[in-house]
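Notes from the 1:1 (GR / supervisor)

We went over the backlog. Supervisor wanted to see one worked example end to end before approving the batch request, so GR pasted a single chain during the call. The sequence is below; no edits were made to it. Supervisor asked that the structure be written out right there so they could see what the output format looks like.
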Amino acid sequence: NAKENREKLRVVGIPHHEVPTLDRFTIYLDTRHKALLNAAAQDTELLHAYNVLRSIFKSMLSNNGDLFNQITKQEIDKVIEKPRVVYDFSSLMLRGEGIAMAQLVNIVGYAVGNLGAGDTVVIHGVERIKSKSVKDYMVSQFEHLYQKGGRVAYLYNDVDKMLDDKAFNEFDKADYTIL
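Structure output shown during the call:
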């Protein structure tokens, strides 16, 4: 009951073993969907919502189950204590831009939530981020990091692409620009 237990609701900090794997979550969605179909009074909006969620999560499971149908390893919790953490998305780009951008968004949100004053996020290969919505999300997240005293470094493999991407990287406002 979410309304009566707001203090227990959270998106991060949930023990990893309590989060269902994607295959178990899709079974839950199927069960709820069937229960709604068999109910005497049907809520068409709720039925549609469950149908959309079922479709999305089944697609994730069938297309990228090896990535999303995993329990998060405990080592991720130690990231906060490490002086440097490297997330390599190069192999994910080979699988598809969409999957790589989904992981990038996930990692940026997690990083910003755990970083603060004096910390720096370094993004290498920024020219490979094509989606405006991903860039908009990153800008909003990095604003939170700036407010906490953190910094961001964008690394481009091509100066012309960096110049073309000025609306995103705002290199003219940068503390340093290295060419």
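Supervisor's comment: The longest helix spans residues 44-68.
Batch request approved.
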